[in-house]
Amino acid sequence: QVQLVESGGGLVQPGGSLRLSCAASGFPFSSYTMRWSRQSPGKGRELVARISSRSDTTNYADSVKGRFTIYRDNAKNSLYLQMNSLKPEETAVYFCARQGWGYVDYGQGTQVTVSS
């Protein structure tokens, strides 16, 4: 059974930083491209960042380039998202996801609120 459990969300002031973590289990983590996505109230889910199975390729949404970093530790079956210089409009539920062949499996998400 695929499990993706996010943690690390919370309340942060504008300009602040957070690191999100995702603990994966139930599948061969090191074989899959992984993603972070987010969804704000009233908006669709947005791809934030993606990392290949061996970390040799990363992709970012234009809006987060230079501020967010996605990385993984295959030995620990864990995915991370370091977020710096956060903006109020980035308040959202952030989801860890496994990218399969023609499908995506999401975790339950962790709330990130950027507010003073």
Oligomeric nature of the chains: single chain
Shape: globular
What is the gyration radius calculated from CA atoms? 13 Å
Number of helices: 0
Give the helix level as a range of percent: under 10%
Biggest β-sheet: count, sense, barrel?
7 strands, mixed
- The percent range for strand residues is over 45%
Which regions contain 5 or more consecutive residues with pLDDT less than 50? none
Give an account of the 3D structure.
This protein is mostly beta strands and 116 residues long. The protein contains no helices and eleven strands. The N and C termini lie far apart (40 Å). The mean pLDDT is 97.
Describe the secondary-structure layout.
Elements: E1 3-7, E2 10-12, E3 18-25, E4 33-39, E5 46-51, E6 58-60, E7 68-73, E8 78-83, E9 92-99, E10 104-106, E11 110-114
Parallel strand pairs: 2-11
Antiparallel strand pairs: 1-3, 3-8, 4-5, 4-9, 5-6, 7-8, 9-10, 9-11
Could you provide a short overview of the structure?
The protein is mainly beta and 116 residues long.
